[in-house]
Amino acid sequence: MRLNSTGELEAMRRSILGRRDPHRTHVTVCSSTGCLASGSEKVTEAIQREVQARGLEEEVEVMSTGCHGFCEHGPVVIVRPDSTFYHSVRPGDAPRIVDMLAQGQAVEDLLYQDPGTGGRIKHEGELPFYALQTRTILGNNGLLVPTSIEDYIGLEGFSAIAKVLDSMAPEQVIETITRSGLRGRGGAGFPTGAKWETTRKSPGETKYIVCNGDEGDPGAYMNRSVLEGNPYSVLEGMLIGAYAIGAREGFVYVRAEYPLAVRNITFAIRRARELGLLGRRVLGTRFDFDVRVVKGAGAFVCGEETALMASIEGKRGMPRPRPPYPAESGIWGRPTNINNVETWANVPHIIRRGAEWYQGIGSASSKGTKVFSLVGKINNTGLVEVPMGTTLRTIVYDIGGGIPGGKTLKAVQCGGPSGGCIPAQHVDVPMDYEGLRAYGAMMGSGGLIVMDEGTCMVDMARYFLAFTQGESCGKCVPCRIGTRRMLEILERITMGKGMSEDIASLEGLAATIRDGSLCGLGQTAPNPVLTTLRYFRAEYDAHINERRCPAKVCKALFHFEIDEVSCIGCGACKAKCPVGAIEGQAKGPHRIDQAKCVRCGVCQQTCPPKASAVVRKDNSRRETP
Amino acid sequence: MEKEGVAPAPIVAGRGEATAGHASPLVLDAPTEMLSSPDGNLLGPVANKLARILLKYHKRKEDIISLLQDIQDEFGYLPRDVLRHLSKEIRVPEHEIYGVATFYSQFTFNEPGQHRLRICLGTACHVRGAVGVMEEVQRGTGIKPGQTSLDKQFSLETVMCVGACALGPVVVADGTYHGTMTPAKARKLIQDLREEGRP
């Protein structure tokens, strides 16, 4: 079937909604990468089996949906329409879930338990994790089967491109996007409308648009979640952008590390083509637009737009100087407009609900919502979507549920390897482009790595430098060699071999790399070092002057000991030690042979909590040469 | 024939990480698969596989990355002989193909093991202890990232974030995600995989 006009699209929507029984029970099982890894496929099968066994196929539909964001407690199952929220569901729970469906009740022990009151919370929207979010981009993830174009159309899908084709000139579309205040979600926050306008005005018949899904920032996965969970929303955004800019061809550049995202967006493109929503004469109009998927091959630098374009051309992904900007000379020298996945996904909402609606969300300088991936030492790991300007405190404590194990927050790394850390004392920072920049961090793609007192900041700086050093494409000497020199210094410090002049050398190298690199990778590579130096100088000093790692993370600077008084002699650590470094008799105190120990920490993990006899001790207190 | 000592790093220089692993006596240092006949032509089935891949593309230079991805999907790595023929087919010099292939970390020039272990070293996994997991995997398999064991049972890669951050540390074994890994769980996983391979 092909839709030959916007009217036919509306007719199809009416027919889809007409066939829907709003009272029919839907059991939605999250089937994104996170929940699949927790075993959601088996849960779906088990629930389906139980539904069939009871002959409830007419009354109950089981759906595999996209990411609900509450990834820590996957697999997530939501029963609609009343949105009963179950988490950490196992296949064995299926019979009880289906039994309770028939009785209109909930399985109490699968409901979320409020950590404060201990009470059970039944409905999705009442969970503290969701109650404080504004889920514009992620909201529909849990309501549709990601590959079903019918589901997307049923949720107002493609009504924005229909509105554009029916009643808006390209200039009006750009004007709406500009007025909305939408800024690029890839990190830099460049105004989207202005970018579109430049590309539109660039001379040339052939123009391209690109969806940047090369989410290389380790610890950020919001783009994966959108491409996996709601691929048609990205395509609709691209359709609107292509119409406004005057492009007939688009690319979706996705990381090969995201196989499910590649599969779902590829399927969505094929399906949209079948219905005449992509290809020649979109919805029977004179607008032609088609998209193809390009799989990245594992290079962080390809998130940079000129490197990404080189990669699409089949070359090594190395950045080039700007100007000329891609808007003037991009892929194969043609004007090219590149936006992030999340930016594209915002576009249909703005067109549907208007620029004024969008302006009403967010802070003075940053409009709309932002998806953050909240990971690390946090209770509720997951994807969080909040209005721009929401404080970090709200995200970490109210939505994220705070730090596990009663530990205290130390810092939050924001913006990945290009960003910086926000120390705990600045947790009231408003999360928008300017707010973060004031603290030396940046929005980046929105990765938030939460760190507690057990995280060593020097080790974190070393980690990020090791990452950027490995990912440096090698074109600019300051970046290629400078990051390596910085890494060597940081490695030396974490080994307890730091020298007093090291900090000055780090600062000097940082300035050179920042000023002497072509692209964002090099310019921002020193940020993690500079911000940790700014806020955690004492930790560097402890490593260098006292040969001590205050967090007891750097392996050369601490060792494990078994406290003979607390040790109950259970032998668990001895049995698990991979290198046979633990000696001791049953019921008697055990001890660690430091010469054999590799500091893997298995003994500490296996020691029963009631004993907690394995402790980390500074090396400086033990006599070592 | 068994080899003593650590094998020289494969062509993917710089990809393998020099982390404290213990003895690694059994490392595959070059692919052993026979893909060409002595006269330099690809063996029939190999040539057919390459031809099928080439059919999907217009043999344009811009398709190099996609072609290499398909070749790696088919063979598990990028075999030298196949790349030599690819070069002739798409009329791109071999050195340019290698230039592209060595730039991207997805590509490997070493035959993968029967079990492919990918360890996520993304930030979320790192702060939750991925390094300890990786060291245990290295101890258990005797190989370092970028290497394949001589018995071809295991190959090891590191990945910068698979995007399953809530489950960190993550090890992907033969496409299956194993979450909240600890050194102890990693050890068990390797034992299980080893036994799976036995009749």
Can you put this structure into words, describing what you see?
Chain A is an alpha/beta fold and 625 residues long. Chain A folds into five domains: 18-131, Glutaredoxin, CATH 3.40.30; 149-357, NADH-ubiquinone oxidoreductase 51kDa subunit (Rossmann fold); 369-455, Ubiquitin-like (UB roll), CATH 3.10.20.600; 458-545, NADH-ubiquinone oxidoreductase 51kDa subunit, iron-sulphur binding domain (de novo design (two linked rop proteins), Up-down Bundle); 558-621, Alpha-Beta Plaits. In chain A, the strands form six sheets. In chain A, strands 12-11-15-13-14 form a five-stranded mixed sheet, sandwiched between helices. Chain A has a four-stranded mixed sheet with strand order 2-1-3-4, with helices on one face. The model of chain A has no long low-confidence stretch (mean pLDDT 94). With 199 residues, chain B is of the alpha+beta class. Chain B folds into two domains: 44-103; 110-196, Glutaredoxin. Helices cover 38% and strands 11% of the residues of chain B. Chain B has helices at residues 44-55, 64-75, 80-90, 94-103, 123-127, 130-141, 183-196; strands spanning 27-28, 115-120, 148-149, 154-159, 171-173, 176-178. In chain B, the strands form two sheets. Chain B has a four-stranded mixed sheet, covered by helices on one side. Chain B has a two-stranded antiparallel ribbon with strand order 1-3. The model of chain B is unreliable at 1-24 (pLDDT under 50). The interface between A and B is large, with 62 and 50 residues.
